[in-house]
Amino acid sequence: MKTLKNFPYQHVLVLGLAKSGQAAAQLLYDSHISFAINDKQPFEHNETAQYFAELGVEVVTGDHPLSVLDGVDLVVKNPGIPHQHVIVAEAEKQGVPVVTEVELAYLLIDGPLVAITGTNGKTTTTTLVHRILDEAGLNPLLAGNIGVVASEVVREQKPSQPVVMELSSFQLKAIHQFKPDIAVLLNITEAHLDYHQTLEDYVNSKFRLVERQTADDFVVYNHDDSTIASKQEWLQATPVPFSVTHSMDYGVTCFDGDIYIGQERLMAERDVALPGDHNLENVLASIAVASQFNVPHSVIESVLKQFTGVKHRLQFVKSVDGRLVYNDSKATNILATTKAIQSFSNPIVLIAGGLDRGVAFDELIAQFDGVKYCVVYGESAQKIAHSAYEHDYHNVTICDNIDDATNEAYLQSEVGDVILLSPACASWDQFKTFEDRGDMFIDVVHKL
């Protein structure tokens, strides 16, 4: 199992003991590097802190005193901890580098690294790229924001074994040396402003993925995305564009119902099993990555004809009395829900709501031509309903929770309708994760 070698820091602070913090701490311990831990959860309820304390590691829990920075020359923070946090802000003020756990993982990687980011579609694209490379016999590793801690995964990496990594803006904002061989920029639209404070900071965090790339690397990017197009000067790597609207001599495109790699036809668009027009961009990006590994076209085509998606991402749940029920709990922003709505020609009964992150919902309501009824719940329910009324849309019911909202959606639906959970909001007002929210929805659907 790999450990850190020639590590340039003398004493590290691990800030936050979620999965990534625990993995970072274990890696530092196994590498015989001096470090301390600071976590907000009280010690008596903190099994991970107790574990490391028994190993002799300095552990401070329950509070964040500035003294934890004494003698520290690197902070490894949990991605979800904002940079306004008292310890992070003070470390940056003192000139102490602040990184996320993927930076440590990068120091261990010995082989091709594919790193994928975007506002929407990251998990679907990461999973699809991994599936294609695996079918091609390349034995890739899957890591990152997809739920598998990178610094755990890459410790088992064999020489030349590809790593396919999903990365969030939270992770990317705090990287310094991290540089992928193949970077993927899917799309960028307004999101996570409660964390980043400004759209500019969010966009810049995404583009940190490509900052250190050179002409020897590749950047797969969405030619149709205006935000990415406006920052072309940031792209120093060899470009591999993809587009669902333009015919190009290179890159990956879809036009006249067919998908092309360069000028060579790969397959018909209708043969792609993954549902939803928005997923076509994810498909093209995945093809572009696979083409850099010289995966045979027959392998790519075979996977695309079988891959139907990822749980909680426009997942078909079941048919209930002639209604088609879909779980899109991963849609935690307006653009994701908009794309989900646009994926169906059937009338939609939409279930939306969750954590109020301070965004306006006017853009969402503007897409309601295909939505016959909307059921809203949670912290943002009143706000979404108010936006609907402001736009003269009155087919709205406010509920307290997913259970009530799902039953109400069924009552408002008819044979042939789509019942769609696509919340346009984060889950944290009532659930720990969007997966928990989706699982609850699925449970309720099976009881209808």
TrEMBL record:
Lineage of the organism: Bacteria, Bacillati, Bacillota, Bacilli, Bacillales
Family to which this protein belongs: Belongs to the MurCDEF family.
EC code(s) of this entry: 6.3.2.9
Keywords: ATP-binding, Cell cycle, Cell division, Cell shape, Cell wall biogenesis/degradation, Cytoplasm, Ligase, Nucleotide-binding, Peptidoglycan synthesis
Gene responsible for this protein: murD
Annotated Mur ligase central domain residues: 116-290
Enzyme class: ligase
The reaction(s) this protein catalyses: UDP-N-acetyl-alpha-D-muramoyl-L-alanine + D-glutamate + ATP = UDP-N-acetyl-alpha-D-muramoyl-L-alanyl-D-glutamate + ADP + phosphate + H(+)
Keyword set includes Nuclease: no
Ranges of residues in domain Mur ligase C-terminal: 312-425
Name of the protein in question: UDP-N-acetylmuramoylalanine--D-glutamate ligase
Source superkingdom: Bacteria
Listed Gene3D superfamilies: Mur ligase, C-terminal domain, Mur-like, catalytic domain, NAD(P)-binding Rossmann-like Domain
Any Pfam family: Mur_ligase_C
Transmembrane parts of this sequence: none
UniProt binding sites for ATP: G118, T119, N120, G121, K122, T123, T124
Regions annotated as coiled coil: none
One GO MF term attached to the UniProt entry: UDP-N-acetylmuramoylalanine-D-glutamate ligase activity
Pathway: Cell wall biogenesis; peptidoglycan biosynthesis
Task performed by this protein: Cell wall formation. Catalyzes the addition of glutamate to the nucleotide precursor UDP-N-acetylmuramoyl-L-alanine (UMA).
Compartment list: Cytoplasm
